[in-house]
Structures are given as C-alpha cells and as structure tokens.
Amino acid sequence: MEGVDHLAHERNKSEFDVDAMKIVWAGSPHAFVVSDRISKLVASDPGFRKDNRSTLSRKELFKNTLRKAAYAWKTIIDLHLSEEEAAKLRFYVDEPAFTDVHWGMFIPAIKGQGTEEQQQKWLPLAYKMQIIGCYAQTELGHGSNVQGLETTATFDPQTDEFIIHSPTLTSSKWWPGGLGKVATHAIAYALLIVGGREQGVHGFIVQLRSLEDHSPLPGMTVGDIGMKFGNGAYNAMDNGVLRFDHVRIPRNQMLMRVSQVTCEGKYKQSDVPRQLVYGAMLYVRQTIVADASCALSRAVCIATRYSAVRRQFGSQNGGPETQVIDYKTQQSRLFPLLASAYAFRFVGEWLKWLYADVTQRLQANDFSTLPEAHACTAGLKSLTTTATADGIEECRKLCGGHGYLCSSGLPELFAVYVPACTYEGENTVLLLQVARFLMKTVSQLGSSKKPVGTIAYMTRVEHLMQCRCGVQRGFAELSADLVEAAVAHCQLLVVSKFIEKLQQEIPGKGVKQQLEVLCNIYALFLLHKHQGDFLSTGCITPKHAALANDELRSLYSQVRPNAIALVDAFNYTDHYLGSILGCYDGNVYPKLYEAAWKDPLNESVVPDGYHQYIRPLLKQEIRTARL
Ligand SMILES: CCCCCCCCCCCCCCCCCCCCCCC/C=C/C(=O)SCCNC(=O)CCNC(=O)[C@H](O)C(C)(C)COP(=O)(O)OP(=O)(O)OC[C@H]1O[C@@H](n2cnc3c(N)ncnc32)[C@H](O)[C@@H]1OP(=O)(O)O
Ligand SMILES: Cc1cc2nc3c(=O)[nH]c(=O)nc-3n(C[C@H](O)[C@H](O)[C@H](O)COP(=O)(O)OP(=O)(O)OC[C@H]3O[C@@H](n4cnc5c(N)ncnc54)[C@H](O)[C@@H]3O)c2cc1C
C-alpha cells in the first residue's frame, strides 16, 4: 500500500531517542543539519537521478557523469556552498568521478609537497577548477613498489627543464583516475635523474592536455584503460594510461618542498623527511577509513530493513510467518556488521583528529608522530576496507535471492566499493607496513625510547619484552604471521576508540546504552571469531570463551527491538540508499514488481532476436537459419 509505513511497528519498539543517535552518527548537531539538508537537496533534484545507471552503456554513463559533475559544480557556486557542504553534496550524489581525484589527491599533493610559491601558483587554478588534476603514480609494471617506478625525469641544465620519459612499456602510467579522458594536469611520479645520478622518486606537475581544445600536448599518448569489475558505476571513472615521449617541463614544476634541484643542477634535500613524498596517500587513506563506515552502514541499513520485512517459515495456526530478522543465525551475521559500522564511524572520527594533529605538527617541522600516523592510517585503511567489502557481500547474501538484483543496490555498492581494498595501497602491503612499525617498536622496548600513543600498551605486555631481540630478523619468513599481528593491533585500536567514545558524555534517552551494547558486540564477536588464538596463547580459558558466546547471544536479543531504529539513525534518504529492499517504508514487494517492468528487456513482449534465433530453434529450422 502506498504511503503506509510497513516498518512502523518496528520503529515503535525502539528503546532510545533516534534523533539523538542521528546526531552522534553525524558527529555534531551542526554536521547533522548540514548532512540532512544536502541529502534532501540531492534527493529532490532530478539532475542527480541515479536509478537508471545500470542500464546505461559505458559512453552514456561517462557522459552523464560529466554532466552531473558540471551540474554539481554549478550548484555549489549558485548556492555558495561551503567546503563542508560541497563535500556532502559529492557524498550524496554518490557517483565516482574525476572530481574525486582532483580534490582528494591532486590538490592535497600540491598542498603537502609543493613550496609556498608553487602552492600560490597552482592552488587558485585548481580550486576554481580552471585546471583539472589527476594523481599519476602507478604504472603498468609497478603499483605497490613506488621506488620501482620506471618513468624518468632527467634534469637538463641547458634549458632549465626536466625531460619526462616513459622508457619501457611497463613504465606507462596505468590506473590514475581522471587521466583517461578528463584531466588537464597530473602530478606525475618519476625517478629523478640529476647530473647522471638517480635521486629517487619525486612528484612533478605536468600539463597533459590543451586548455583550449583538450587535445593531448605533444609527446603524450593518453587514453582510458577499459571497463572495470561489475559493469557498475565505477565505470563512470576514466582510469587512464599515459606514455611520455621526452616531454619537457620547466624546472619549477617539480614539487620542491621535500627536495630541490637548483638551476645549476644541484640536488638538495630539506630537513623534512623524504616520506612526505607519500603525504597525499596519508590524507586519502584517512578519508577512506571515514568512508568505510558509510558504505558498510548503507549495506547494513538495506539488509536490516529487508530482514524485518521478509518472512519465511514458522507460521503458527495460519498466522504470519517469522520475520527473518528473528532467526538467531540471521542476527549473528547481521548484528556484528551493524556494530562494525558504528565502530568504524568512531575510529574514523578519531583518525581524522590524528591526521589534523600530524598535519599541524608537520607544518611546525615536528615529524615525531609521522611513523605512528602512517601505521594507523595504513592499518585502519586495510582493516576497515576489507571488513566493509566482505560485509557488503554478506549483506547481499542476507537478502537472499533479491539481494542479487541490481534494484537491491547491493551489487553496485559492492562493485564500487571493493577496489578500496586495492587502491591507495593494497591491503596486505599496508599491513606489512604496520607489522614493520610494530616490530621496530618491539625491538626498542627496554631502551630509553618509550612507546607512546597507540603503542603505549606494548610496555605492559610482558611477553613482548622477551621476544624483542632479533625481531628484525626473519621478517619476510614470518610475514604471514606478522600480518595477523598487525590486524590484531588495528582491531585493538578500533575497540579502544569505541570505548573512549563511550567515556564521553552522550545525550539522549537510551543512546549511550545502545552504543554500549554495540561496542560489546563488536569486541566479543572478535573474541569469538579469533577464540582459537586467544585460547592457544592462554589469554582466555575455555570457560571465558563459552561465557563470551552466551553474552553475545544475549546482546543480540537486546539489539533486536532497536535494530530498525539503529539503521534509521544513519539518516539515509531512499535516493542515497538506491535500494528497493532498503526503502524507508519497507514496501518492498510492490516496488520490486513495478521495477521489473521498467527493465529495457520488458519494452517489448516478444524479444528482439525471436525471429532470428528462438523461432528457428522451436521450428527445428536451425540448419537453414542465417545465424
Ligand atoms: C559526479 C559528482 C561530482 C561532484 C562534484 C563535486 C565537486 C566538489 C566536491 C569536493 C569534495 C571533495 C571530495 C574528496 C573525495 C576524496 C576521496 C578520495 C578518492 C580516492 C580515490 C582513490 C583513487 C586511488 C588512488 C591511488 O591508488 S593512488 C596510488 C596509491 N599507491 C599506493 O598506495 C602505493 C602503495 N605503496 C606504498 O605506499 C609504498 O611504496 C610502501 C609504503 C608500500 C613502500 O615504500 P618504500 O619502498 O619507500 O618502502 P619502505 O617500506 O622502505 O618505506 C620507507 C619509510 O617510509 C615510511 N612510509 C611509507 N609510506 C609512508 C607514508 N605514506 N607516510 C609516512 N611514512 C611512510 C615507512 O614506514 C618507512 O619508514 P621507516 O624507514 O622509518 O621504517
Ligand atoms: C579503481 C582503482 C583506482 C586507482 N586509482 C589510481 C590513481 O588515481 N592513481 C594511481 O597512481 N594509482 C591508482 N590505482 C592503482 C593502485 O594504487 C594500485 O593498483 C595499488 O597500489 C596496488 O598496486 P598493484 O596493482 O601494483 O598491486 P601488486 O603490488 O602487484 O599486488 C598484487 C599482489 O601482490 C601482493 N604483494 C605485492 N607486494 C608484496 C610484498 N612486498 N609482500 C607481499 N605481498 C605483496 C599483494 O598483496 C597482491 O596480493 C588505482 C587502482 C584501482 C583498482
């Protein structure tokens, strides 16, 4: 029935103030107001329609994304939106586009690695989108191993220029988003060669296309790398390939905050650490962690609402069947994901703070917390994206057959989300960075250098003191185990940041209690999942393990009446969710039925191809048919 809230009985069961929880989820009353306003603005504007995306060809999808990006930019200017509002607009438009890399990587790279002078020259152009940038680091032959990049930047003192060149096929830039068809400029990473000596990989601002007619500049071969996984919305992004043939750029287009090349051809390093060349990755990894809670909460919202609508088995005396959300098996798969969405939200908030703190310190030339910030951003990026990608797929399965329909929103969400496990650092490679940081810390235990911040706990772990000697040996051999240790360290971070959140004042009837339940689910679920490790290391006894399991079951029962309200607190519009199964009113079946008839295949009753292929089969005329 139209206009009826089929989930009203669920909403009436909730035991806490949903509006107050919405504010906790958003981060602050102000953030809630902005987010709520912009989400409604996007949802009500037909210019941001996205329900037809899966039926568009690649070319149509790409062009439509160009239109949306231009329309979004016009909206931002016409409505004088602030940076915060513009970011929310991008979020709710919910379409990957070249603009992400321009704002999320190109601009941060110039800010982090450019000199004052370079920032003054390039940032105003980039902020007004008079130039559009991409981040051209990865090559066909190397992505993870940045020091293995083959593109060269050779200084020519005669002309005061760098010659950027792709000496091999494998040195072709490959993957950068926005590069394929849109970007006018790139931050291109290349091996610097000065006076015949190699000086490591550095970033260079390179113009790719004419600002008049968009044609590639001389010496550039550039294009799109082709269709990507899932045929979904990520194909709106023009991930590109680029080859340089002795392209000349002025010397002042090398990003020179970390190191400089003088006009005489002298290579100089500032007193800032070389690792700042990786600064843009630190920034983006932190935003990816914040985004993980959004993608996971979206999938969980869909699966939770649908689980309350869907009924299978269990009818008593002709009464209604059981809502699948009432099955303990469904709860034990769904509620840990609900708890994870909240946990990732809070650890994402904390990481934002950590990033702001390290940025401030770097500006004041205090580099002391950079290794810890790198380990936290890398590790949490890996942990949260892996769990989120797996969680979206689990939500699809939790929705049974209908979860496989595009109109459930889950296949596209998965296809768009899953590359987050690979880009910005392949997840295992990032965990190895965390492991390296942890081993370095262990090797220093007992020395005058005391671990602080997120690794302070190590001094309290007696066992670590005993194994500190020789931990740097055999790293490669033990790397599979060390990666598990890195995951455990990151899990500890997530749990401890959730607990810290609960130590703050949280207003609203029942809100803190609900969060306590979710925090306990998150922690106990991990304990349950890894009980083998806990038992084998003697951290818990079998009795503890059994108690934890009992407690988990009881916690699931406490969540059950609040489940719908807990996902309502995400405050997602139906437009953003893009899912019939997750629609707010729960009126799933009529909407599914209606949507099926809108499929292009149903435009005609007898399909195209009938006369050519079906009829000859049926009439046994296949041998004479022209196929
Ligand atoms: C249609 C809609 C339109 C709307 C329009 C609206 C417009 C306006 C809206 C505005 C809104 C803004 C929206 C913004 C959105 C932002 C979202 C972002 C989008 C993201 C898109 C993603 C695209 C993907 C991009 C990429 O993938 S880029 C390429 C990334 N590549 C990698 O990550 C490579 C991974 N490899 C590495 O990082 C390194 O090579 C390595 C660390 C693995 C190894 O490095 P190395 O070889 O040097 O080895 P070492 O291990 O020896 O390291 C040396 C030391 O350096 C330390 N280290 C390493 N990394 C770092 C670091 N990052 N920071 C600090 N320190 C680092 C090591 O720890 C070592 O230290 P030690 O010597 O002390 O041990
Ligand atoms: C959708 C998408 C968008 C992207 N956008 C951009 C962009 O805008 N700009 C850009 O520059 N790049 C971009 N990339 C590239 C991306 O950053 C790289 O693909 C990523 O860093 C992984 O590198 P790789 O492809 O070389 O993987 P590989 O390193 O080749 O990984 C293959 C396998 O090898 C393993 N492996 C690698 N090294 C080690 C090791 N040392 N120890 C143990 N195992 C190892 C990995 O765990 C993985 O299982 C994008 C990629 C994707 C998918």
Automatic annotation (TrEMBL):
Organism this protein belongs to:
Rhododendron griersonianum
Highest taxon of source: Eukaryota
Q: What cellular component terms from Gene Ontology apply here?
A: peroxisome
Instruction: Give the matching PANTHER family.
Output: ELECTRON TRANSPORT OXIDOREDUCTASE (PTHR10909), PEROXISOMAL ACYL-COENZYME A OXIDASE 1 (PTHR10909:SF250)
> Which InterPro entries does the annotation name?
ACOX_C_alpha1, Acyl-CoA_ox_N, Acyl-CoA_Oxase/DH_mid-dom_sf, Acyl-CoA_oxidase, Acyl-CoA_oxidase_C, AcylCo_DH-like_C, AcylCoA_DH/ox_N_sf, AcylCoA_DH/oxidase_NM_dom_sf
Question: Where does the record place it?
Answer: Peroxisome
Q: Where's the Acyl-CoA oxidase C-alpha1 domain?
A: 278-439
Spell out the SUPFAM superfamilies in the cross-references: Acyl-CoA dehydrogenase C-terminal domain-like (SSF47203), Acyl-CoA dehydrogenase NM domain-like (SSF56645)
Single biological process term from Gene Ontology: fatty acid beta-oxidation using acyl-CoA oxidase
Active-site residue numbers: E424 (proton acceptor)
For this chain, the family text in UniProt reads: Belongs to the acyl-CoA oxidase family.
Q: A Gene Ontology molecular-function term?
A: fatty acid binding
Protein keywords? FAD, Fatty acid metabolism, Flavoprotein, Lipid metabolism, Oxidoreductase, Peroxisome
Q: Which residues form the Acyl-coenzyme A oxidase N-terminal domain?
A: 17-132
What cofactor is this protein dependent on? FAD
Q: What Gene3D superfamilies does this protein's entry cite?
A: Acyl-CoA dehydrogenase/oxidase, N-terminal domain, Butyryl-CoA Dehydrogenase, subunit A, domain 2, Butyryl-CoA Dehydrogenase, subunit A, domain 3
UniProt binding sites for FAD: T138, G177
Protein name in UniProt? Acyl-coenzyme A oxidase
* Keyword hit for Oxidoreductase: yes
Q: Where is the Acyl-CoA oxidase C-terminal domain?
A: 462-619
